[in-house]
Amino acid sequence: MTEHVRYAAADGVATLTLDSPHNRNALSRQLVAELYELLERAEHDDAATVVVLRAEGRTFCSGADLSEAAEDGMEKAAGVLVDLQRRIVTFPKPVVTRLHGNVRAGGIGIVAASDVAISADDATYAFTEVKLALTPAAISLTVLPRMTDRSAALTFLTGETFDGTAAAEMGLVTRAVPEAELDAEVDRVCAALVTGHPQGLRETKGLLGRHLVANIDANGADLAKLSARLFGSDEAREAMLAFLNRKK
After folding, report:
1. Which 3 state secondary structure label does DSSP give 10?
2. How far apart are the C-alpha atoms of 9 and 22, rounded to whole Å?
3. How far apart are the first and last CA of the chain?
4. Which residue has the higher pLDDT, 137 or 237?
5. pLDDT classification of 203: cutoffs 50, 70, 90
6. What is the pLDDT of residues 35-79, one digit of tens each?
7. pLDDT score recorded for residue 38
8. Nearest Cα to 224, choosing from 110, 74, 65?
9. What does the alpha-carbon distance between residue 94 and residue 108 come to, in Å, rounded to a whole number?
10. pLDDT tens, residue by residue, 122-180
11. Under a CB-based contact definition with an 8 Å cutoff, are residues 110 and 91 in contact?
C-alpha cells in the first residue's frame, strides 16, 4: 500500500509530509491513520524537538474525503477533524505548518490548530462551505480564535479566495513570504524553536493552547452534529450536485 504520509527527521525537526495526490491530500482513513501514527512517532522521538507539517502537490489538504464521508456519515468525518485538531493543539512539541498552493476546508483547520503557520504569500485560502449550503463548523473551533471577528465574517460569508498575505493580516497564519523563501523561513523558525528546552516548550504550548482545548472539548461534538445535519440536507445535495456539474 502506498504511503500517504512520509516521515523524516534531521537537526531536531521531524517532518511529516502529506503525499496523497489522487485526492488532493484529503483526510482519508489511511492518511489520518498514518498521520496519527507518525505524530506518535515524532512525540517519542527524542531527537525531534519540533514537528513540521507540509504537503506534496499544489494542495496542502482538501479536507474530508467526501467519498468516505458518504459511506461513514459526515458526523464521523467531522468528528475525525475535531479530534485531529485537538491532537495537534495538545501535541507536546511545537507544530509548524509549511503552506503553499491551495489550502481549503479541513486543511485550514490543521493550519489553525498548529502553533506556527508559515505561508507562501501567493498561497490561496477559501472557506467555500457557504456556497455548498454548509458552514465551516468543525474547523471554526480553531479558526475563529485565530482570526479577527471582522475577517472571519467576511471570509466565512463570502467564500471568496484570499492569499497568504491576507491570511497573515487576518491572523490565520503567522507569516507570509515569497514561495522562493518559504523553506528558508521555515528553517529559520525551526532553528529558533529547537533552542527551547523541551519542558519549557511543552508547558508554554499548553499555556497558549488552553483556550483552544476548552473550546474543542465544549463544542466539538455539537459542531460535528451540525456538519452532519447540513451535509445530509436536500439543499446541500443540490448545491454540491450543481457545483460538480459546473466543474465538468
Report:
1. strand
2. 26
3. 30
4. 137
5. very high
6. 999 999 999 999 999 999 999 999 999 888 877 766 767 788 899
7. 98
8. 74
9. 18
10. 999 999 999 989 999 999 999 999 999 999 999 999 999 999 999 999 999 999 999 99
11. no
The model carries a pTM of 0.94
Q: What cell was used for 109?
A: 483547520
Residue type, 40: E
CA 9, CA 152: separation in Å to the nearest integer?
36
Can you list the positions of beta strands (E) in the chain?
Answer: 5-10, 13-18, 50-55, 95-99, 102-104, 116-120, 124-126, 162-163, 175-177
CA 184 → CA 14, 189, 191, distances in Å?
16, 9, 10
DSSP letter for 59, please: B
Going through 156-247 in order, the beta strands assigned E by DSSP cover 162-163, 175-177
Q: Per the structure block, which three cell numbers stand in for 98?
A: 509549511
Q: Are 70 and 36 in contact (CB under 8 A)?
A: no
